[in-house]
Amino acid sequence: VPLAGNRPGEAVEVQCFAPSASADLLLVRRNRPVDASTVTLWNVREEEATATFHGEFRIEVGHRFTLEADLPSRWIIDSVVSSPATALADWSLSDAADRRRTLSLRLAQPLAPDRPLRVTIVGRLKHHNAGDRLTREQMRFVEFRNTADPRPLYGLRAEEGLRLQLRDSDDSKA
């Protein structure tokens, strides 16, 4: 029977009233989401669209040595930088599958309650030209798995001479 409301540092006492009584105990670490605060800035130019993602990640308990994000396959990642700079061991980008790719960040120092992580990711949308419509899916850029960001922020800027037209419709074109 799972214990309700258990917290780190709590104790549970079990009393057995017969010599043959026993208790089985199974400890399982709950997979809590990583707390995130994110800002994504898009810059639309005549011949390309770029995005810069800034994220700060925190965890209440435990350690995490990897973070993974999904992104549409048309995005090219130009750089991934961490703060502190030594926190990121390396990063990799998977091959496209179902028009999605996975960005994996392997940390040299684990994300821990006393060690938050800041990450900046810069990318560009390949084969983008002025007049192309960007779908909501394409504009998602990076979405980190198993994270909770209650208020992600977004910014959108167009090069001088370009006009942005935003639509919220069934086909989710922007």
How does this structure look, described?
- With 174 residues, this protein is mostly beta strands.
- Helix content is 0%, strand content 44%.
- The protein is built from no helices and ten strands.
- The strands form two sheets. Strands 1, 2, 4, 7, 9 and 10 form a six-stranded mixed β-sheet that branches. Strands 5-6-3-8 form a four-stranded antiparallel β-sheet, with no helix packed on it.
- It is elongated.
Concise structural overview:
It contains no helices and ten strands. The chain has strands at residues 34-44, 49-58, 64-72, 75-83, 88-93, 100-111, 117-125, 143-144, 147-148, 153-158.
Shape: elongated
Structural class category: mainly beta
For the termini, the CA-CA separation is: 49 Å
Helicity range of the residues?
under 10%
Number of helices: 0
Would you tell me the overall average pLDDT? 83
Low-confidence runs (pLDDT<50, min 5 residues)?
none
- Radius of gyration from CA coordinates: 22 Å
Specify the biggest β-sheet. Answer: 6 strands, mixed
User: What string gives the helices and strands in order?
Assistant: EEEEEEEEEE
Number of extended strands: 10
Strand residue content: 35-45%
